[in-house]
């Protein structure tokens, strides 16, 4: 994949995430697809680490996803191995054997059981990975493990990403400082209704696997499941959360524990920030767009309408052209197939109402709207006037950059 | 809308459709959006003309669509008025009044009842049309009605289309020649699951309105409802069929009449050719792609998978790049949410099998596949190996041209 210019929406700086007790990591060059490029991440977790995960709902999920699904049942983790360059997806029985082989090599390097090792792979689909490339590499990597800096694993998992994605939260629980660090990768093949891309979150909070799983699934809904770049969903989407449990507080054993709510909110913040980073690194993106739908008959209905708007190529190209083309928004509302009454429908860009009750708004200010559309972060709100349902989906615009990245093989 | 280069997939010539007894037409310049541009089509049907229609399922359908829905109940037609430049969609109560006004003006010009006049409008959404622009214009147009040439109405209804779309069939029923002529417009905001764009078909076959309606709905499924350019669906999609009944044969009164099948097949051919013209004029299209799905658990399931593939921006950009990227096809199969077993899945481009039983096919010929992808008309076949269900969806590639047409307002 050729190098592409860094997204204009990239952050100006990256957070220096703190070490988290109970996790160490190192990266390596295994030459999976390219030479002289970091393409492997190995993480080691101390004994007692619980794990939760949300995986792609694709009917053609990758071998790595299937293995994670299997190992999540145990609820404990000692290792994570991630590679870029080859997703090993759609590689049949041989693909399944290869991920088993790689996790066995990792388990030996880390001194744990293969069922305690998780794996994620990203890159080309349909080519069997050469599992022997991990021979020796993981052993050697395991001798160099460290707790810092977190930008290193964030960089190691990048593919078409133009910037590394990190987010962290520090919160106090029972007077003790608890940490949550997260990294993510993804910029194309990104759509809601799935776990979307790769993301790994580590905390030192002691928390039972089923509680972590419940919180992760809940907050995934409003973060990774609420973004779309191109409506396409990967076969390898993986979100894993690891809790080393080394913070010296009583473990959270149940969702009824009031601390679950507090911890969940911090987890949610980290997931949300990572998800927004993914949108802002959307292939070819020049604008970040929040699509709010309110007044729908239910939250689910609002979500489907927001997704129809955020997925619409015509809406996204209009935004690229800085055109407040609310006619295309109406079109997308109409095609969602959800209850909508044209004559109650209102549309705002930012605070500027462009349509009210099914007609161009009286006092619509074209100059102000045009000025607003030049911004880098846009808010688009559709009020249906039918009920209390609401939802937000986050997306980016659709530009020549997307076509260049995904279609210009001949150039 | 700026003029765009004619699609490279435009036909080399246009059919010279014959006159159809019982229908006359003329076009006019009403200055609806631009000066000096034909933007109105008026058609007049002789007494005894039956009518059927398939209209957008958009929840925000236009005023013209709503009026057609109302008038279709009567089953008879004397007039059709079509304008480009303004779709009059999302214009509330005033929009409804304006289409009533326009059909009244048309009815006076043609000497019939307003309930016998059908209307279709295409162009910008959300701006109330100035109905007074039709005053005098339709009266005058009605004095110039003719039976030929059919390319004239085909041109009058174009918007971002780069070529006019016509198709005709002549068949023999009971030893008598029966004619079917069709025209269509559309190149963006095109997706299945709706009637899609504007299309008008006229025949001299005497056929009862309910029978015509049943045949139109059935054959719309495998033509206009099986194409997609950009997955976006218009608020104004309209397909109307008019039967003047002037061919000297006994009328078809029931679907049980064996001639219904014969007539339906010819109608189907006309609808299909028009639908393919729309795909070939897809905004920015450089390739026409037929996506076949076979071996699905049902035809409906096959259709949803084919549509997921045909709608996928990643598949469409890969095709633009002449890359037989079957990994992206697998991704699209996976995201459709329909039953699919990776290990039974096979994928062919043309006759070239690239993947078989969940893996790259033994004997995959990269050079031959690359050569095939340079073609202008491509066939992509996915075999699921699960059942007997099959479907085909027709689409085009996704290129810089699409972005330029829909997003480059600033240029």
Automatic annotation (TrEMBL), chains A, B:
Enzyme Commission number: 2.3.1.35, 2.3.1.1
Chief site of localization: cytoplasm
Record pathway: Amino-acid biosynthesis; L-arginine biosynthesis; N(2)-acetyl-L-ornithine from L-glutamate: step 1/4; Amino-acid biosynthesis; L-arginine biosynthesis; L-ornithine and N-acetyl-L-glutamate from L-glutamate and N(2)-acetyl-L-ornithine (cyclic): step 1/1
Molecular function per GO: L-glutamate N-acetyltransferase activity; L-glutamate N-acetyltransferase activity, acting on acetyl-L-ornithine as donor
Residue numbers marked as site, Involved in the stabilization of negative charge on the oxyanion by the formation of the oxyanion hole: 122-123
Reactions performed catalytically: L-glutamate + acetyl-CoA = N-acetyl-L-glutamate + CoA + H(+); N(2)-acetyl-L-ornithine + L-glutamate = N-acetyl-L-glutamate + L-ornithine
Binding locations of substrate: 159, 185, 196, 283, 406, 411
Active-site feature positions: 196
Protein origin, superkingdom: Bacteria
Cellular component terms (Gene Ontology): cytoplasm
Compartments it resides in: Cytoplasm
UniProt GO BP: L-arginine biosynthetic process; ornithine biosynthetic process
Ribosomal protein is among the record's keywords: no
Site-annotated residues for Cleavage: 195-196
Keywords annotated in UniProt: Acyltransferase, Amino-acid biosynthesis, Arginine biosynthesis, Autocatalytic cleavage, Cytoplasm, Multifunctional enzyme, Transferase
Statement: the UniProt record of this protein carries the keyword Cytoplasm: yes
HAMAP family: ArgJ
Subunit and partners: Heterotetramer of two alpha and two beta chains.
Function comment: Catalyzes two activities which are involved in the cyclic version of arginine biosynthesis: the synthesis of N-acetylglutamate from glutamate and acetyl-CoA as the acetyl donor, and of ornithine by transacetylation between N(2)-acetylornithine and glutamate.
Family: Belongs to the ArgJ family.
Protein name (Swiss-Prot/TrEMBL): Arginine biosynthesis bifunctional protein ArgJ
Gene: argJ
């Amino acid at each position: 994949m050729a190098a592409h210019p860094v997204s204009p929406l990239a952050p100006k700086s990256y957070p220096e995430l703190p070490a988290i007790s109970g996790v160490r990591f190192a990266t390596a060059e295994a030459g999976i697809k390219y030479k002289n490029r970091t393409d492997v991440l190995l993480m080691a977790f101390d004994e007692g680490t619980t794990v939760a995960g949300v995986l792609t709902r694709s009917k053609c999920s990758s071998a790595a996803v299937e293995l994670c699904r299997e190992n999540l049942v145990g609820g404990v983790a000692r290792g994570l191995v991630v590679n870029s360059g080859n997703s090993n997806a759609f590689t049949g029985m041989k693909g399944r054997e290869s991920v088993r082989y790689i996790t066995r090599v990792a388990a030996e390097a880390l001194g744990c059981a293969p069922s305690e090792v998780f794996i994620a792979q990203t890159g080309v689909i349909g080519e069997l990975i050469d599992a022997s490339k991990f021979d020796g590499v993981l052993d050697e990597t395991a001798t160099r493990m460290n707790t810092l800096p977190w930008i290193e694993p964030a960089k190691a998992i990048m593919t078409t990403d133009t910037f590394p994605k990190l987010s962290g939260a520090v919160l106090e629980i029972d007077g003790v400082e608890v940490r949550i660090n997260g990294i993510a990768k993804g910029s194309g093949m990104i759509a809601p209704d799935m776990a979307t891309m790769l993301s790994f979150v580590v905390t030192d909070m002691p928390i039972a696997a089923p509680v972590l799983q419940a919180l992760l699934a809940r907050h995934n809904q409003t973060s990774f499941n609420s973004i779309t770049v191109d409506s396409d969903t990967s076969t390898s989407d993986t979100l894993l959360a690891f809790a080393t449990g080394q913070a010296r507080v009583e473990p959270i054993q149940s969702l009824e524990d009031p601390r679950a709510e507090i911890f969940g909110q911090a987890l949610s913040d980290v997931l949300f920030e990572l998800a927004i980073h993914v949108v802002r690194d959307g292939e070819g993106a020049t604008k970040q767009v929040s699509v709010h739908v309110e007044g729908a008959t239910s939250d689910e209905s609002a979500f489907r309408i927001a997704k129809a708007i955020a997925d619409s190529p015509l809406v996204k190209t209009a935004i690229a052209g800085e055109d407040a083309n609310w006619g295309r928004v109406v079109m997308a509302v109409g095609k969602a197939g959800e209850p909508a009454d044209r004559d109650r429908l209102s549309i705002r860009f930012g605070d500027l109402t462009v349509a009210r009750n099914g007609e161009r708004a009286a006092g619509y200010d074209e100059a102000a709207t045009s000025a607003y559309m030049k911004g880098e972060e846009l808010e688009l709100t559709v009020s249906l006037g039918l009920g209390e349902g609401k939802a937000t989906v986050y997306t980016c615009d659709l530009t020549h950059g997307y076509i260049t990245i995904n279609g210009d093989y001949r150039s």
